[in-house]
């Protein structure tokens, strides 16, 4: 009797409400994910066979983002998500029915020629910044930070898909665990990200932005879980969300990394070769998570040598200085917090700090970056004072994607100083429009003389799916100086107008994207711009870029330019001419004003192959009529840049690059200058943490004796400090061969053992040809260990 009654009551009762769905289909808009919390420990082994993975939230329904958005992804992807009180876990199943999986055993951050998956975690839920965790099919890691500032790809050197999304800064390194394996359906990767490695907002309940990006190398396609429009002004603003994260415990976040360095330098001593063995140096770095969202770093007597020397660069325009990326561990942690529109923070100005301290994070909707450092006295003008740097960067969120910021930098050296204060902002509106600005000034005292000058920048852009345009203007006065930042070319105003149309081919077509582009560019001397005078340089660039089926990228350009004389370049040069009445020789100032303007016409071809399983290549060639800066005359210019990466096995990687730059005189075809840099890098990955690397680079330059080309033909004289007088330039030849060998053991960021040897050989006779001779070498050992409390 009891059973029929219970059945009757059950039939009369309403059905129980369904629990939260485990399946979150991106194209169906199921973008709010509440992953289960599971207090279990699993081995990160790349095999998703523990029961907890069967209870995880599932992200599926990926969409293609590049080269064409708004269509279903060709390859299926599933991402499983759950978390415990100490870490968040991701399991990736990437299905690959159309082509071979590309996977190699590579060094950290060197996996972007492989298939890979990117996990973008916006732990502050602001749609402006994210920590990026990248794994290839074997679980090899790359990582970094993405802070959207409105930068867009494109222009003369661009061969990419353009206007997709801003690049990730790979400088930051996070401690996380990952392992992967190839399967019969594709590949499977397991990822564990400890909360100790993240900064996130205060509060018991957390909501984080989340997107997952998959790169498929055989097709060149980029897929995203949260559907993203190429036309949107913000990529991160289109992310999904992790909701309902509670009870997260970072515990004590205290990292201590002591380090020991030893170095032996060799050089000729007149009678042979001698070595100077420095005493071993002990230093260290401490990282303390003050709160969930603020981190304090301190370092004393750190080793700031670089494991890999900077690759050689060729300079065509002598007015442009060379920029080198920051690679030193202390500075790259939280470096994204110091980005500004005009690069007013450039930490490589700090040469060899004795001690430094840094506070980075986010509080009350404001990004905070504070850096103070005391540099070695070798970096001062006197050789006795210790330069002191103080840098403050604040950015405040406005609305959904907009922000305002301020930056202050201060470099003090004895009684001299350089101070810069600037405000900047990025406003996003209408979904596809953005405006950036910066306004600031510097005050500099040097040898009892004080100068002040402004700097300013403005940019307005429309990031439409088919129609993209950007208008920008930058100005910095002659009296603006920054000794804590990087300013490419001082005392100029530059204005640029860029218009691009993107045509999309049908799915399966040979041409997947075709992008014609028109760029108008003008450059003025700052005071000439203020006075309403004519531009120093006028440029019209017509660019064509395209993406072909399979990931090929090809393009070409026509460059129409007019360069006017910049007298500052030749203010110190002189000419050697016959004296009055034919009596001897005389010197007069070099005055190339008889050629006030030079008309240029150049042609450009460029290409990028797909990242094939075993190789990839790229090339850039520019040729035509261009300015001969050596003599201020019209010349014939040839620039060749090429690269080839060969991966014959999963462990061996060979990268070869070649740079060539040549200027000939148009009148008689004689060569003014030619520079070449072939570079070869071989890497062998013995295991995930161990690799060997060999680098060889050969630089040559041949320069003719300079003359007043196309005018008087007289020899050009340069001031020789050793002679104390002006002397004729002579034909010169420079050669330099540099080799580096490195053994690296790096199981995680912070714990490293490096042993390296480097040697340089140079041409001792610049006026003639003779054999290369070794001029210096060095052997170094560095060891550090990350103690994580």
If you had to describe this structure to a student in words, what would you say it looks like?
With 789 residues, the chain is an all-beta fold. It has a 24-stranded antiparallel β-barrel. Strands 2, 4, 5, 8, 9, 10, 13, 14 and 15 form a nine-stranded mixed beta sheet that branches. A hairpin with a 6-residue loop joins strand 33 and strand 34 (585-589). It is globular. The protein starts with a helix and ends with a strand.
Please describe the topology of this protein.
Elements: H1 2-12, E1 23-25, E2 32-33, E3 57-60, E4 63-66, E5 71-72, E6 77-83, E7 87-95, E8 116-122, E9 129-135, E10 141-147, E11 177-182, E12 186-194, E13 205-216, E14 221-224, E15 240-246, E16 254-268, E17 273-277, E18 281-291, E19 294-300, H2 329-332, E20 353-363, E21 366-375, E22 388-398, E23 402-413, E24 416-429, E25 433-446, E26 449-463, E27 467-476, E28 492-501, E29 503-504, E30 511-525, H3 526-530, E31 537-548, E32 553-564, E33 574-578, E34 585-589, E35 597-608, E36 615-628, E37 633-646, E38 652-665, E39 671-685, E40 690-703, E41 716-720, E42 725-728, E43 732-748, E44 751-762, E45 773-784, E46 787-788
Parallel strand pairs: 1-3, 2-15
Antiparallel strand pairs: 3-6, 4-5, 4-14, 6-7, 7-12, 8-9, 8-13, 9-10, 11-12, 13-14, 13-15, 16-17, 16-18, 16-45, 16-46, 18-19, 19-20, 20-21, 21-22, 22-23, 23-24, 24-25, 25-26, 26-27, 27-28, 28-30, 29-30, 30-31, 31-32, 32-35, 33-34, 33-41, 35-36, 36-37, 37-38, 38-39, 39-40, 40-43, 41-42, 43-44, ...
The N- to C-terminal Cα distance equals 64 Å
Strand content: over 45%
The total strand number stands at 46
Question: What helical percentage do the residues reach?
Answer: under 10%
Oligomer: single chain
Radius of gyration: 29 Å
Low-confidence stretches: 1-20, 153-163
Alpha-beta classification? mainly beta
Assign an overall shape. globular
Number of helices: 3
Q: Would you tell me the overall average pLDDT? A: 89
């Amino acid at each position: 009797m009891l059973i029929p009654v219970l059945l009757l009551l059950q039939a009369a009762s309403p059905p129980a409400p369904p629990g939260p769905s485990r399946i979150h289909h991106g194209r169906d808009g199921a973008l709010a994910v509440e992953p289960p919390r599971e207090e279990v420990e699993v081995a990160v082994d790349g095999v998703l066979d523990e029961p907890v993975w069967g209870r995880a939230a599932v992200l599926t329904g990926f969409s293609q983002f590049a080269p064409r958005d708004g269509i279903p992804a060709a390859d299926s992807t599933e991402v499983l998500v759950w978390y415990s009180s100490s870490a968040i876990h991701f399991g990736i199943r990437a299905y690959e029915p159309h082509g071979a999986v590309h996977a190699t055993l590579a060094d950290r951050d060197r996996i972007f020629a492989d298939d890979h998956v990117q996990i973008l975690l916006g732990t502050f839920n602001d749609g402006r910044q994210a920590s990026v965790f990248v794994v290839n099919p074997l679980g090899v890691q790359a990582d970094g930070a993405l802070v959207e500032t409105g930068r867009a790809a494109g222009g003369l050197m661009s061969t990419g898909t353009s206007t997709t999304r801003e690049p990730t800064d790979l400088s930051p390194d996070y401690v996380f665990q990952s392992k992967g394996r190839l399967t019969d359906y594709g590949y499977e990767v397991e990822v564990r990200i400890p909360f100790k490695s993240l900064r996130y907002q205060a509060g018991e309940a957390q909501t984080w932005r989340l997107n997952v990006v998959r790169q498929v190398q055989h097709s060149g396609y980029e897929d995203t879980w949260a559907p993203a429009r190429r036309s949107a002004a913000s990529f991160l603003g289109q992310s999904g969300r992790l909701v309902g994260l509670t009870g997260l415990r970072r515990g004590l976040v205290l990292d201590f990394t002591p380090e020991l360095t030893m170095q032996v330098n060799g050089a000729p001593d007149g009678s042979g070769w001698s070595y100077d063995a420095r005493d071993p140096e002990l230093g260290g770095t401490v990282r303390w998570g003050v709160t969930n969202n603020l981190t304090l770093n301190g370092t004393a007597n750190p080793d700031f040598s670089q494991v890999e020397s900077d690759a050689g660069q060729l300079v065509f325009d002598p007015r442009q200085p060379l920029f080198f990326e920051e690679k030193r561990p202390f500075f790259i942690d939280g470096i994204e917090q110091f980005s500004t529109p005009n690069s007013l923070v450039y930490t490589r100005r700090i040469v060899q700090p004795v001690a430094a301290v840094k506070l980075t994070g986010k509080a009350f909707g404001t990004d905070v970056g504070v850096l103070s450092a005391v540099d070695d006295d070798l970096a001062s003008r006197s050789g006795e004072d210790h330069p002191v740097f103080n840098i403050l960067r604040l950015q405040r969120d406005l609305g959904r994607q907009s922000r305002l910021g301020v930056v202050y930098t201060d470099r003090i050296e004895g009684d001299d100083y350089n101070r810069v204060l600037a405000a900047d902002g990025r406003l996003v509106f209408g979904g596809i429009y953005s405006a950036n600005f910066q306004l600031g000034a510097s005050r500099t005292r040097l040898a009892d003389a004080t100068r002040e000058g402004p700097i300013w920048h403005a940019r307005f852009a429309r990031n439409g799916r088919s129609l993209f345009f950007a208008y920008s203007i930058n100005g910095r006065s002659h009296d603006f100086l920054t000794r804590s930042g990087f300013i490419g070319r001082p005392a100029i105003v530059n204005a640029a107008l860029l218009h691009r149309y993107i045509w999309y081919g049908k799915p399966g077509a040979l041409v997947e994207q075709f992008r014609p582009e028109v760029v108008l560019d003008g450059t003025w001397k700052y005071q000439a711009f203020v006075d309403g005078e004519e531009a120093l340089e006028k440029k019209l660039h017509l660019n064509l870029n395209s993406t072909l089926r399979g990931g090929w990228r090809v393009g070409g350009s026509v460059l129409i330019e007019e360069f006017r004389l910049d007298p500052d370049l030749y203010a110190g040069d002189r000419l050697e001419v016959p004296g009055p009445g034919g009596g001897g020789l005389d010197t007069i100032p070099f005055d190339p004003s008889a050629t006030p303007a030079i008309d240029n016409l150049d042609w450009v071809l460029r290409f990028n192959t797909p990242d094939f399983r075993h190789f990839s290549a790229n090339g850039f060639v520019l040729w035509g009529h261009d300015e001969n800066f050596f003599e201020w005359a019209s010349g014939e210019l040839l620039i060749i840049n090429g690269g080839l990466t060969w991966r014959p096995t999963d462990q061996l990687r060979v990268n070869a690059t070649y740079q060539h730059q040549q200027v000939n005189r148009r009148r008689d075809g004689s060569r003014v200058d030619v520079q070449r840099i072939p570079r070869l890098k071989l890497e062998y990955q013995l295991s995930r943490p161990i690799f060997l690397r060999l680098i060889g680079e050969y630089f040559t330059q041949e320069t003719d004796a300079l003359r007043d080309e196309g005018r008087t033909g007289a020899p050009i004289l340069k001031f020789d400090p050793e002679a104390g007088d002006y002397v004729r330039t002579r034909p010169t030849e420079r050669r330099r061969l540099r080799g580096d060998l490195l053994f690296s053991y790096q199981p995680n960021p912070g714990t490293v053992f490096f042993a390296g040897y480097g040697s340089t050989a140079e041409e001792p006779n610049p006026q003639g040809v003779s054999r290369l001779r070794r001029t210096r070498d060095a052997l170094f050992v560095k060891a550090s260990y990350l103690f994580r409390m």
